[in-house]
Amino acid sequence: SEYFEYIKQSSFSMSDYINDVLDHYESDSLAQNKPELFKLNHLLREIAELLSIKPDCTINFPESNPALNCNKSALKQIFFNLIGNSIKYNDKEHIIIDIEHTEDNIFYFFKITDNGMGIPDNQIDSIFELFTTANGTDRSGNKGNGIGLSTVKKLVETLGGCIKVKSDLGVQTSFNFSIKKQTKI
User: Fold this and answer.
1) What is the largest CA-CA distance in the chain?
2) Strand ranges of the sheet holding 107-114, from the earlier edge strand across to the other edge
3) What does 101-136 look like in DSSP terms, one character per residue?
4) Which helix (H) or strand (E) holds 164?
5) Phi, psi (deg, nearest 5) at residue 34
6) 44 and 14 Cβ atoms separated by less than 8 Å
C-alpha cells in the first residue's frame, strides 16, 4: 500500500505539472480574448470558489468593487495563480490575503499581499523564470514546478503591464502588477 500511495502522489504531481505547462503555453491564446465589462470582486469571488477557500484563510477584496473593462479570462488566470500561491506557500496558522486596486487613465493597478513564508532576497530576481521556484515545498509538503509565476508575468506583459514583487522573509509578500486599459473600439 505504501508503493500505491507513492504512485498516486506521483500521478497527481505529474498531472499538475502537465496542466501547468499547458496553461503556460495556452496563455498566448488566452491573452487574445476580447475585453469585457465586469466587477472585480465578482471575479475574485469566482476564483475563491475555484480554490475552495477554507475557514483558515481570509481574503480581503477591494472595498470599492470597481468595474473593469479588460480581458477577464487573462486577469482571472493571473489572480488564480497569485492567490493560489499565496495560499500554497503560506506557513501561518491563519492565511490573510489583501487585494487592492487603483487605476489611472491608462492602467489598472493591483496589489496582492499575503502573510506567508516570503521569498528569499537572493531569489526575488529569478522567480518569474520558467521552471524556477523560490521555496523548497509548499504548505502541504509538495514541490512547485516553477510555471505559474512565469505564466503570470507572460500574461501581464502581453496585456501591456508589468509585475514586481516585494517580500519580507517570514512575514509577507506583495505582488504589484498593472494591465493596460483597453481602448473602446
Assistant:
1) 60
2) 57-60, 95-103, 107-114, 172-180, 163-168
3) EEE-SSEEEEEEEE-S----GGGGGGTTSTT--SSS
4) strand 163-168
5) -70, 150
6) no
Mean pLDDT (the chain) is 83
- What are φ and ψ of residue 133, in 5° steps? -125, 150
pTM score > 0.90 for this model?
no
Residues 91 and 56: beta-carbon distance below 8 Å: no
pLDDT, tens digit, 9 for 90 and up, residues 37-73: 999 999 999 999 888 888 999 999 999 999 999 999 8
Could you please state the CATH topology (level 3) that the domain comprising 2-180 is classified under: Heat Shock Protein 90 (3.30.565)
Dihedral angle of Cα 61, 182, 85, 143, to the nearest 10 degrees: 170
Q: Which residues contact residue 121 at a Cβ distance below 8 angstroms, ignoring those fewer than 6 apart? A: 167, 169
Per-residue pLDDT tens over the stretch 107-153: 999 999 999 988 888 888 888 886 566 566 555 556 555 667 888 99
